[in-house]
Amino acid sequence: MSIWPPIAAFGVALVVTRTLVSIAPRLGLVDRPNERSLHQSPIATIGGVGLVAGVFASLALLEETRTAHLIAAGVVLMVLIRDEITPMGPVTKLVVQSVATGAVLWGGYLSMTTMVAWESRVLAFFVIGLAFVYTQNIFNFMDGLDGLSGLEGAFVAASLYALYDGVSPDLSALSLCICAASIGFVVWNLPPARIFMGDVGAHFLGLLFVWIAFVGVGHGVPFAVGILPLGAFLFDSTYTLIRRVLRRENITKAHRFHLYQRLHRSGSSAWTVNSVYVVWTLLFGATALALKSEIWVTVLIPVLAVFSVLLTIVTEIRWARTGDYA
Predict the structure, then answer these.
(1) Residue 326 pLDDT > 60, yes or no?
(2) By the 8 A CB rule, do 14 and 187 touch?
(3) CA-derived radius of gyration, the chain
(4) DSSP states of 78-140
(5) Which helix (DSSP H) or strand (DSSP E) does residue 44 occupy?
(6) CA of 176: how far to CAs of 163, 173, 225, in Å?
(7) Which residues fall within 8 angstroms of residue 97, CB to CB, at 6 or more apart?
(8) Quick check: 280 and 307 in contact, CB under 8 A?
(9) Phi, then psi, of 32 in degrees rounded to 5
(10) Are the CB atoms for 204 and 185 separated by under 8 Å?
(11) Burial 203-239 (b: 16+ CB within 10 A, else e)
């Protein structure tokens, strides 16, 4: 692969995001504090558009990779800019997510249903679609702390680059470009953030990561291994969802009770929380590589499990001490 696609991804994301830092507030595209916010004053949003622009720039240079379907999905997700001005209903957002999923599966990749060893192609396609929508949403749910989503995007993509290196030149090249674009964005999103990612960038990253995991099955990497680098976000979101269901809370209502949110609200700085999640993501990525190569598996899986359980326990204990049991 040429060095120019990742350079283009980084450069375009860096410049476009910086431009949006100045332009977004003038257009009223700001994230005002609400019941799920961790910030205290309005901050420019739609920074993820810069990240998407960076990925688009790199896709234009990846001549041997079919990219029209990925660009189409990104364009569809641009509709979510509207949500930054006037909140969109959950059904409307679900429609946008579903159309983006359909777009990314377009162009021959509908054959991914054959990768699932089920007799019913309809059921397989439904489950694949559900995975796309769920992953888009969990990445968006986790976009609530300065630097977190951008760093997650960079480190997950770096793990995927290593995972598919030597297996699929196309997937490894795309992953490297996503990493570069995420870095270009996160420069302006690190604490204290000057701009937030917003729905467009978060949904796009979630969609790309699950797509890579599914396509990777055709290159000999099981889906569970391909999606594992995203494990920190998947674990946090799924654990929080189960916790809220068991507490009979309204799971459609915005909240601030993800593990990362409660860690921050119970005293940890944004930098500390980001560092914890970077380490956690690296452990998930290393475990994926271990499963692929069948080396160090018996060491990394227990380490990852212990880290995940301890982080959850520590968060719950610290949160209980705050006296807020919601």
Answers:
(1) no
(2) yes
(3) 19
(4) GGGGGGGTSPPPHHHHHHHHHHHHHHHH-SSGGGGGGGS--S-HHHHHHHHHHHHHHHHHHHH
(5) strand 43-44
(6) 11, 5, 18
(7) 132, 133, 136, 137, 203
(8) yes
(9) -90, 140
(10) no
(11) bbbbbbbbbbbbbbbeeebebebbbbbbbbbbbbbee
Q: Which residues pair with 44 in a beta bridge?
A: 30, 195
Number of residues that this document lists for the chain: 326
Alpha-carbon distance 251 to 242, whole Å? 9
- Tokens read off for 22: 């100045």
Only one residue has tokens 């601030």, namely: 256
Angle between helices 4-26 and 48-61 (to 10 degrees): 150
User: pTM here?
Assistant: 0.93
- When mean pLDDT is compared over 23-32, 85-94, 143-152, the highest value belongs to 143-152
Asked if residue 285 lies in contact with residue 158, where contact means CB atoms within 8 angstroms, the answer is: yes
**pLDDT on residue 156:** 98
Q: What are phi and psi of 86, to 5 degrees?
A: -130, 115
Asked if pLDDT for residue 289 goes beyond 60, the answer is yes
Q: Which amino acid is at 99?
A: V
Place of tokens 């982080």: 311
